Amino acid sequence: IRTMHIRGKLEFSRSTDTQLDVGVIIISTAATVDFNANCSMHQHGPHWDGAPLPTLEVGSMDNPIPDGITARIRLKHFSDFDPDCAPGIICYNGRMDFHGKPVNKTWVKIAQSAMDGDNTVTVAEAVNWQPGDRIIVTRSKRPSGNIINTGSYADNGQIQTEEKVVSGISGNVITLNSALQHDHPVWKGGRYAGEVALISRNVIVESK
């Protein structure tokens, strides 16, 4: 689908996996839209007090997309798109809701130094993540030979952030699918520490 204009309500299923491949979604009460014409303004449609807003609902706070069901929007580029506008989701005087399986924490601090070769990470707070979830362990150590104001994050630090898969969790200890390849030290009694962040979601908006 190249363009989707939502004037009413588009609600994703909570009982079966869904995937929408689309160039641009415009949520607006306007009768017609042209996302390449002033996409950041002038697209507002009429609004009547008390009337329902045009809505894209991929789960709601009270009724999220449940565990075991995946809802995915893949934004696709088309050659005639204005790169300042699309691909993307544009909402004018409307409503967007994205709510997947609730998690108690999306990220937590590392509580004890996790070193090269370790296959567990101890975190400061218990999490309800599951085996098979994808996580990242962020860097907390300056690369060897690097000094302040030298180089960039992209070329000297990014590689120390590691993506792993959860193999198991016991209390505050997360077991990884493979050993760490970098040191992730905790400094000054936990004041300075890296984080472990959950990147698995069952509601996903991504580019294609």
Give your account of this protein's structure.
The chain has about 210 residues and is mainly β. It has two domains: about 1-100, no CATH class; about 105-200, Elongation Factor Tu (Ef-tu), domain 3 (Beta Barrel), CATH 2.40.30. Helix content is about 0%, strand content about 30%. It has one helix at about 155; strands spanning about 5, 10, 20, 25, 55-60, 70-75, 90, 95-100, 105-110, 120, 135, 160-170, 175, 195-200, 205. The strands form four sheets. The chain has a six-stranded antiparallel beta sheet with strand order 9-14-11-12-13-10, with no helix packed on it. A three-stranded parallel beta sheet has the order 1-4-7, with no helix packed on it.
Helical content class: under 10%
In what range is the share of β-strand residues?
25-35%
Low-confidence stretches: none
Oligomer: single chain
- Put simply, the count of helices is 1
Strand line-up across the major sheet: 9-14-11-12-13-10
Number of domains: 2
- Backbone CA Rg: 22 Å
Highlighted features:
single chain, 208 residues, mainly beta, Elongation Factor Tu (Ef-tu), domain 3, six-stranded antiparallel β-sheet, three-stranded parallel β-sheet, 1 helix
Task: Compose a concise summary of this entry.
With 208 residues, this protein is mainly β. The chain has one helix at residues 153-156; strands spanning 3-6, 9-11, 18-22, 24-27, 55-58, 71-75, 88-91, 95-98, 107-109, 120-122, 134-137, 162-170, 173-176, 195-198, 203-207. It folds into 2 domains: 1-101, no CATH class; 107-201, Beta Barrel (Elongation Factor Tu (Ef-tu), domain 3), CATH 2.40.30.
